[in-house]
Amino acid sequence: MTDLATHEAMGDKLDLATYVPMGDKKNSEFFEEYLPRVYERREKSGLDQLVGPMAALVVQVEHGDGVDYMAELAAMGPYRFQTARLTDTHKVYVLQSQPEYPRLIVLEPLTADYVDNITRWNMLYPLARRKPNARYIGEVYQAQSTQAVRDALEPQNIRFAYPGDTVNAFYTNKNLTFTFMSDFTYNRVGYVDVDLDDLDALGLGESINLTADERGKLDRADALQSEHGVKGLVLGVDHAATRILAGDREHALLEYLTVVPYYFWGAYNIHEMNSSTNVTRHPDIGDEKKSPARVFTANNTPSIVNSFDNLPMPTEDFVRNFGRRMHHLAMAVIDGHVADEKNVDYVVRQLAEMGTPFLAKVVGECKDDPNLKQIFSKSSPYSLLITEYIERCHNFEGFFTRDNVASLTAAAGADERYEHGHVFD
To answer: Per-residue DSSP letters for 134-185?
Structure first.
């Protein structure tokens, strides 16, 4: 069995009909039947030709949090503010890391009392309701034609947002269109058929400038990162991981593989945490940062019967506390050393000195063999997203080791507990 990097080096196209997924997670007969049918229908519908790599990731924050969140991003990683637009409901900020990597789009409601489906959904969960408009929205993929994508997918029961379906017209632009929120992940998928940097072509509203104070806040964060030697070591998004319910794992994978030209790379059981990690990737791109992998994590045992065995279930607890949503964005750290210290250890130490809180120590070892080192930050007070830092050593192929992900999951679970006493109704 050969992996994506080998295929790319050989100039071959990955054959999804013969590819054998990695991992030890046993899938159902239902999944094994429908996965090749999804690939086949996707090819026949033309989606594989219509849709290219990931063009952007979209995050919404609360009113008043936009600049603070961009400052946090500037201190912790490679994303820098480029431009902003004003719509009827939001400020829209566009950030860039490297030109060839996906953009990050930050949506900030214009008023503190803004309400849409995201607000209502977040208010249902005890640890999400403190920031009812903060949420990872979804990914945007480059497309030849948004209309052609809708024509291909709507007969397959994929629902798109149209004008009048949502108060936020960002989701219903002619050249930038989004699906409804998924029933399984509550993320959206978007498609854009113009240059995402050409906001005039997108028609996102009038251009706006940051104030001197806002610019100063971003400049200070950038300068702080440079002063601590972190700038240039954190490259871009490596993967994005959504947490879902146990019973939705296979459905979420099949749905995602229906709407984007990714493939099911494989799934591994993390027995210590009673969960599985399920990875989808772009078949034609060896550098994950150009089109980040999409990871779906789910419990093996649903909470309703878990009390029989009393197994750990931090993944399902997260969903019960925050709802189905993106859990973390993983940032790739360039492999190497600063003096005698691995880059990821150096980055984490410097970020901690700058005030970034982390959930635990860096896990994993990088010695003579391919391996990787990883760590989770605490969740952002603005986006509620965790940032993972990951350094692949000696061209390690993969996204985790079982020991690493068990330690990371346990650390996140301890930090994401719900304490009774909150008032729901």
So the answer is: -EEEEEEEEES-HHHHHHHHGGGT--B--TTS-S-GGGB-SSEEEBPPPTTT
pLDDT tens figures, 33-58: 999 999 999 999 999 999 999 999 99
The two tokens of residue 246 are 């146990």
- Cα–Cα distance measured from residue 350 to residue 415, given in angstroms and rounded to the nearest whole number: 22
User: DSSP 3-state assignment of 409?
Assistant: helix
Answer whether 0.90 is exceeded by the pTM: yes
Report the distance separating Cα 281 and Cα 279, nearest Å.
7
Tokens of 378: 């605490």
Nearest CA to 191 out of 178, 174, 172, 173 is that of 178
Note the pLDDT of residue 4: 47
pLDDT tens digits for range 259-308: 999 999 999 998 888 999 999 999 999 899 999 999 999 999 999 999 99
Give the closest residue to 53 by CA, choosing from 286, 332, 282: 282
In one-letter notation, the amino acid at residue 226 is S
